[in-house]
Design goal:
It contains 11 helices and 10 strands. The protein is α/β, with parallel strands linked by helices and about 325 residues long. The mean pLDDT is about 95. This is Cysteine synthase A. InterPro entries: Cys_Synth/Cystath_Beta-Synth, P-phosphate_BS, TrpB-like_PALP, TrpB-like_PALP_sf.
């Protein structure tokens, strides 16, 4: 058995996450479905990658000075990644987050030493939206930089330079499709661009939750949202700078119920405790796999992102009363 690689810097722990064959989704799709285990990052989510690249980019441009402050508006996971990176490099963090996000994310940010600013949930057009609030705070804070994950393309660069090459190498250069949901758009755009650089024929699919506008944008050219979702950190109503030029070949819309079904099955049958965004991604991967199989590609390989750990949602997704309050099915073992 090969011993794990040793690292000389804690920030080197970000990335190089395992890729695992998901048995239940593979059986459902009729082809191989692989999950990139981003919950294995130090901050337990895919957002660690964007956090590291954004901070390194700010340092390289000279906008982030020693002892400075990083300010960001986030659904939580990017803030957690930024707080860890900032701690390792001697910076302070101020994180603005909608008060509707999970209690576990709030508690984690406080535990990491970040200054947490909670604001009411609001549409992007509202000046009180968490992104706009974080920008203003950065402008008002001496020595601060605004991470701006939605429109800072250092975000998608992280996935062009790390996530995509890792997937390509882990699958031995044989991959037919990739899909995930979009929040900032950095992951799907970056992995899509990175994989297309290896093989233009890799099919890149957007997996969109209800309540987001991108499905209709890529399907018919119109930013139009339908329905709603309780998933945190995904769903977008505009074309961010990270999404500009994203090589989206096809798109799927996935309901919370379908995503929750895969969350339940992956925990019950495969021992993976994941968040709803991961369940939605897996449902999209199954849909993409079935599409490829229907075209005669029975040996197809599809990869997706297992975004974060389910332990971040114990008070919501894994809480029977919370699920009932949202009109969602309760996992049988919680009843």
């Amino acid at each position: 058995m090969t011993a794990p690689l040793s690292r000389t810097d804690t920030l080197d722990l970000i990335g190089n996450t395992p890729l695992v064959l998901l048995k239940g989704p593979s059986a459902a799709a009729g082809c191989e479905i692989w999950g990139k285990c981003e919950f294995a990052n130090p901050g337990a989510s895919v957002k660690d990658r964007a956090a590291l690249w954004i901070v390194r980019d700010a340092e390289a441009r000279g906008t982030l000075k020693p002892g400075g402050t990083i300010v960001e508006g986030t659904a939580g996971n990017t803030g957690i990644g930024l707080a860890l990176v900032a701690n390792a490099l001697g910076y302070k963090t101020v994180i603005v987050m909608p008060e509707t996000q999970s209690r576990e994310k709030m508690d984690t940010l406080r535990a990491l030493g970040a200054e947490l600013v909670l604001v009411p949930a609001a549409p992007f057009s509202n000046p009180g939206h968490f992104v706009h609030t974080s920008r203003r705070l950065a402008e008002e804070t001496a020595g601060a930089v605004w991470a701006n994950q939605f429109d800072n393309i250092a975000n998608r660069k992280a996935h062009i330079e790390s996530t995509a090459p890792e997937i390509w190498e882990q699958l031995g250069g044989r991959i037919d499709g990739f899909t995930c949901a979009a929040g900032t758009g950095g992951t799907i755009a970056g992995v899509g661009l990175g994989l297309k650089a290896f093989d233009e024929k890799v099919r890149i699919a957007l997996t969109d939750p209800h309540g987001a506008a991108l499905f209709n944008y890529y399907a018919c050219g119109e930013l139009r949202a339908e329905g709603s979702s309780v998933a945190e950190g995904i769903g977008q109503g505009r074309i961010t700078a990270n999404l500009e030029g994203a090589p989206i070949d096809t798109q799927f819309r996935i309901s919370d119920e379908e995503g929750l079904e895969w969350v339940a099955r992956l925990l019950r049958d495969e021992g993976l405790c994941l968040g709803l965004s991961s369940g939605i991604n897996v449902a999209g991967a199954v849909a993409l796999g079935r599409q490829l199989v229907a075209e005669g590609r029975r040996d197809a390989r599809v990869a997706t992102i297992l975004c974060d750990t389910g332990f971040r949602y114990l008070s919501s997704l894994y809480n029977a009363e919370w699920l009932k309050s949202k009109g969602l099915p309760v996992f049988p073992w919680l009843t």
